[in-house]
Write a structure and sequence with these properties.
Elements lengths: L1 E5 L3 H14 L4 E5 L2 H7 L7 E4 L8 H11 L4 E6 L5 H6 L4 E4 L4 H11 L11 E4 L5 E4 L2 E2 L5 H12 L5 E2 H8 L7 H19 L7 E4 L2 E4 L4 E3 H6 L3 H6 L12 H8 L3
Parallel strand pairs: 1-2, 1-3, 3-4, 4-5, 6-12
Antiparallel strand pairs: 6-7, 7-8, 9-11, 10-11
Helix pairs in contact: 1-5, 6-8, 7-8
Length: 263
């Protein structure tokens, strides 16, 4: 699905983008700060849903909604605003939903469910990985379940390495700094690797892992990841980063620091 999000306040736009991403991880999101830019984009794209602020500079969200309906009548519109008094005007224009700021994923999900949008198949053969905020992995629109939390952490570390090969000792040192060089820690990594392979094998994705010469890496072309898209210059991914990256893992703080310089 393709969603448009518009707000002339960059911070509010980032929060909105994050809420939409959490509610619908597989959606493509295009962000705008001006109504004219969004209307121009309608000549090349037909969004399923537009999430629009009401108070916009130069053109109100109500005026923008009228123009959107003229250009793409099938597109749904959900207002996101800090001014509840606009609700009556919104529904008079047959707006499809209304969320009071700050946007939260739970409310976005509720409004999307009310729209009964048709489900679209995700691109086959790729793991969907979310690094911003907490680390999570999805397969066929469902969270991938790991038997052990440290198996999930092992995959997170390999994702963080961006395809660079690493040894079991390097992984152990990152995950257990005080005992990373011990043989016991390296054996734990081997056990976690076996569990990770079994988890990926259960969904036919074991080939995501590359194991050569006692080193381990991730096959990048089999992963769809917000972090990688940000590194490639994707504006939507950049807006989705709100300062948190794999926040449950202390070793990820170095990458978090680097990402702050990219904002």
């Amino acid at each position: 699905m393709l969603f448009f999000a518009i707000d002339d306040e960059p911070r509010m736009l980032r929060l909105l983008h994050k809420a939409i991403t959490e509610a619908e991880p597989d959606a493509e999101i295009m962000d705008f700060t001006e109504g004219d830019e969004l209307l121009a984009a309608l000549s090349e794209h037909t969004p399923d849903v537009v999430f629009s602020d009401v108070e916009l500079q130069g053109m109100t969200g109500l005026e923008l909604a009228v123009q959107i309906k003229k250009a793409v009548p099938e597109t749904k519109i959900i207002f996101v605003t800090g001014y509840p008094q606009y609700a009556s005007d919104a529904y008079r224009l047959h707006i499809n939903g209304y969320i009071v700021k700050p946007a939260e994923a739970e409310r976005v999900r509720e409004e999307l469910d009310n729209l009964n949008l048709p489900k679209k198949e995700t691109q086959p053969g790729k793991l969907r990985v979310r690094c911003f905020g907490s680390f999570d992995v999805f397969w066929n629109d469902q969270p991938l379940i790991f038997r052990r939390s440290q198996t999930k952490e092992l995959l997170a570390y390999l994702i963080d390495r961006e395809g660079a090969a690493c040894t079991s000792g390097e992984i152990a040192l990152a995950m257990w700094e005080n005992e990373g060089n011990s043989q016991a820690a390296k054996q734990r990594i081997r056990n976690l690797l076996a569990d990770l392979r079994a988890t990926l094998r259960s969904i036919g994705m074991e080939d995501v892992l590359i194991r050569e010469r006692r080193q381990l890496a991730i096959r990048l072309d089999m992963v769809d990841c917000d972090y990688y898209r940000m590194l490639d210059g994707d504006v939507s991914a950049l807006n989705a980063f709100d300062g948190e990256y794999m926040k449950q893992y202390s070793w990820a703080e170095l990458t978090t620091g680097r990402l702050h310089f990219k904002q």
